[in-house]
């Protein structure tokens, strides 16, 4: 039947044709259309064109938009993930490689690698605070840390060869970060983590970057002897100011993660960093004291970096455990910045340097926490009431029982504390 039907259609098509007048009319219509719509030359579609999106039907466009939004949300949520979390793979396999691909210059690549290397130590410290840093996880974090640390040191070394001033700044910052990360890890984990392989790896990378910093500073000093000392000092000053601003801003947003004793230490050290910058600026205009100005700015940058690392790590621990980070009361030795300020004081003639204006209040019991800037004062003020302050005393970590003696509870059996001292030592 199908064959007969097709045969009938073919026969009808052979018999039914257009008349000559119909042919002429059809040709005229086609020619007119061709003149109105000429054939366009082939063009390559733009990779980033969004026209396809607006040409979609509403349901399809909504689906694509939801996909983009949800992907961005997942990527953002993965930033705080730890090993063992569902989104940790997104963090290390998507977020971090993309950020590295977007880093173009040696300086940007060094900063990216420093950040990722530090993230591994922060993850280890947070897991240690939670009591779930297994040997297998620690080994994996150590391997990743060593990989990215080596990459950061490589880029810093290349940067120091091309520009000793900026390379030296990067070396100072990474050296300070490694020093503070190692200190925090040891204090969170106790003696169990103070001498383990991860701590040893941190010290090894710290010594490597310290060597690069020394070489960069020697090369920079040689260049400075030809009359460019003020340029090197000015660059270090700008880096110190920028990092100090970042540390103050971070403190404003993380006050709930540390105790009143830590707030006192932070207050003192932020003031010292600001004083070092002020002293350096007074010496910067004199040819005979520009090297001393550079040392003051370097000390301020080191201190500001350490404060930033402490705040990042303590806030990460607080977010995961809900515990307030505290510091045991102790007698702090004079910092490098304060020593430099005392040494340079005799050469200062007049004027007051810039100060950091902030008012600090720390969460105690049920009182709300606030860390707000104040433009009316010229110093950092700690707003903690005597009746709400706690007397802190250091304790140890019992590795056999798995109990961290650095954690305490209040009278209601809640609000446990982890005693992590705020950075006070400025030794590299």
UniProtKB/TrEMBL annotation:
One Pfam family from the record: DUF5667
Superkingdom of this protein's organism: Bacteria
The segment annotated Disordered runs over 363-428
Q: What is this protein called?
A: DUF5667 domain-containing protein
Q: Where is the composition biased (Polar residues)?
A: 363-381
Bias (Basic and acidic residues) occurs at: 389-406
* Species in which this protein is naturally found: Candidatus Kaiserbacteria bacterium RIFCSPHIGHO2_02_FULL_55_25
Q: Which parts of the sequence belong to the DUF5667 domain? A: 80-163
């Amino acid at each position: 039947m199908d064959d007969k039907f097709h045969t009938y259609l073919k026969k009808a098509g052979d018999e039914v044709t257009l008349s000559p007048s119909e042919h002429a009319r059809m040709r005229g219509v086609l020619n007119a259309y061709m003149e109105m719509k000429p054939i366009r030359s082939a063009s390559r579609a733009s990779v980033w064109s969004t026209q396809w999106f607006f040409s979609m039907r509403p349901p399809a466009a909504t689906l694509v938009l939801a996909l983009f939004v949800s992907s961005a949300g997942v990527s953002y949520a993965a930033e705080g993930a730890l090993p063992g979390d569902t989104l940790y793979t997104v963090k290390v396999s998507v977020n971090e490689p993309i950020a590295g691909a977007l880093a173009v210059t040696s300086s940007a690549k060094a900063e990216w690698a420093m950040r990722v290397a530090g993230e591994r130590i922060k993850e280890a410290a947070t897991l240690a605070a939670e009591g779930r840093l297994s040997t297998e996880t620690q080994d994996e974090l150590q391997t990743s840390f060593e990989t990215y640390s080596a990459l950061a040191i490589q880029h810093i070394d290349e940067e120091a060869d091309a520009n000793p001033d900026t390379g030296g700044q990067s070396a100072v910052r990474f050296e300070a970060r490694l020093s503070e990360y190692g200190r925090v890890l040891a204090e969170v984990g106790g003696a169990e983590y103070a001498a383990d392989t991860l701590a040893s790896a941190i010290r090894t990378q710290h010594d490597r970057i310290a060597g690069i910093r020394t070489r960069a500073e020697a090369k920079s000093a040689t260049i400075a002897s030809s009359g460019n000392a003020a340029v090197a000092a000015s660059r270090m000053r700008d880096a110190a100011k920028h990092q100090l601003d970042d540390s103050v801003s971070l403190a404003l947003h993380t006050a709930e993660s540390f105790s009143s004793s830590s707030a006192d230490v932070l207050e003192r050290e932020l003031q010292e960093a600001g004083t070092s910058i002020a002293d350096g600026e007074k010496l910067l205009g004199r040819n005979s004291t520009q090297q001393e100005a550079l040392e003051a700015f370097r000390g301020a940058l080191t201190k500001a970096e350490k404060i930033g690392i402490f705040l990042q790590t303590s806030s990460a621990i607080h977010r995961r455990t809900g515990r307030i980070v505290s510091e045991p009361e102790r007698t702090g030795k004079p910092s490098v910045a304060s020593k430099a300020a005392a040494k340079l004081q005799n050469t200062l003639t007049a004027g007051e340097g810039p100060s950091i204006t902030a008012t600090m209040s720390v969460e105690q019991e049920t009182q709300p926490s606030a860390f707000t800037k104040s433009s009316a004062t010229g110093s950092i003020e700690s707003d903690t009431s005597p009746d709400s302050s706690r007397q802190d005393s250091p304790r140890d970590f019992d590795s056999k029982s798995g109990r961290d003696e650095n954690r305490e509870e209040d009278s209601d059996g809640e609000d446990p504390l982890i005693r992590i001292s705020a950075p006070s030592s400025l030794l590299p």
